[in-house]
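The material for today's practical consists of a large collection of protein records. Read left to right, the backbone structure tokens trace the chain's path through space. An example says more than a description, so a record of this kind follows:
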Amino acid sequence: MARIRMLTSVAGDGFAWEVGQEIDLPGPEAAVWADGVRAELVRDSPLETPEHTPAAGETAARRPRRKPAARRE
């Protein structure tokens, strides 16, 4: 079962759903209704986001400063 939240009011033969109402439907049927216009999918659990670890090219390492060339006399 998947849960959808209605974005518009919809009524038909044997059902009437209002804006904001959350309905449990079988997955394929919920996917049809959750088109972003009539309804949207509701997540029961929060999205899991990985901790940000910079990629190899994303870090900016400083190069050590070059020593000035020795003066020749």
About this structure: The mean pLDDT is 83. The chain has one helix and five strands. The first strand starts at residue 2 and ends at 6. The helical segments are 27-33.
